[in-house]
Design goal:
single chain, alpha/beta, Aminopeptidase, 2 domains, two-stranded antiparallel ribbon, globular, binds zinc ion
């Protein structure tokens, strides 16, 4: 915990330099951070500082979050239509615009919003999060580059976040796509286990599995570049069907997006054993 003190001093000095405020007035701002992990009795007692709590800190875990599509894709049709490697000897379009609700809420905005919530929930729990895009206004990156970003990382898990756009009447519910057939070891048991943990987590959170695709919320896919190219445990979460009125109501609501994010983050913590 000693390492925080230079930070406290530095912040105090900066503030003092700007406005001449006493340092002590600003230290309470950092109190919640400094006291994390220390029981109230420890700071009040005369026992030694709880050094042991820091030595048992587990090593950092990396999770890659891949928010589907991007807000600039629609304005750059040629750029996102170019063919890129999709794994298994195939090629595929660089990216697509994604779907939208009947009211016009676009999938890229949904995936971006939920991904940020998942990122924050994981970061608070000490997970290092890598994102495949930095905003919701750019173009791409292409599906092969998204996979490459994850492959270059030390990711324990890679989760692509999407929502579906089925026009079939009454089609609703979430599903989790996993690589099938597995083209390497990571695409096998680890990916299926990741998919199963996420499926179970979404189910526990009250979301219904899809009634139009896959089985019990799981769908093995051989046509998704992000899965075929992955060298890490990797899945796609299709949170619901944006074209279904009931699903769209949840997908477009603050409460719904928060519930998806908490369910996904909680399941990921289960998967990495934290
Ligand atoms: Zn999508």
């Amino acid at each position: 915990m000693r390492r925080w003190w230079p930070t406290v001093v530095a912040v105090g000095l900066v503030v003092a330099g700007c406005g001449g405020e006493p340092v002590a007035e600003h230290t309470p701002v950092l109190d919640p951070i400094v006291t994390v992990g220390i029981p109230p009795s420890a700071s009040a007692s005369s026992s030694p500082p709880p050094v042991a709590t820091t030595t048992s800190t587990p090593p950092p875990v990396v999770i890659v979050l891949n928010p589907g599509h991007n807000g600039g894709n629609g304005g750059h049709p040629d750029e996102i239509a170019r063919q890129v490697p999709a794994g298994a000897g195939k090629t595929k379009e660089c990216d697509t615009t994604g779907t939208q609700t009947n009211a016009g809420y676009p999938e890229h905005a949904f995936t971006w919003d939920v991904t940020l919530r998942v990122r924050d929930a994981l970061a608070i729990r000490g997970v290092t999060v890598v994102m495949t895009r930095e905003n919701d206004t750019g173009v791409g990156p292409c599906v092969d580059e998204r996979a490459a970003i994850a492959n270059r990382s030390d990711a324990a898990a890679v989760v692509s976040i999407h929502a579906d756009g089925s026009e079939a009447a009454g089609a609703h519910g979430f599903h989790v796509a996993y690589p099938l057939p597995a083209l390497n070891e990571a695409q096998g048991e680890p990916s299926l286990r990741l998919a199963t943990v996420l499926r179970d987590g979404l189910g526990k959170a009250g979301f219904a599995p899809a009634n139009y695709i896959g089985q019990n919320g799981l769908d093995g896919r051989g046509d998704l570049a992000g899965l075929n190219l992955s060298e890490k445990p990797s899945v796609f979460v299709e949170c619901g069907n944006m074209r279904d009125a009931a699903d769209a109501g949840v997908l477009g609501s603050e409460d719904g997006k928060q519930r998806y994010a908490v369910a996904i983050a909680t399941a990921l913590m289960t998967y990495i054993g934290r």
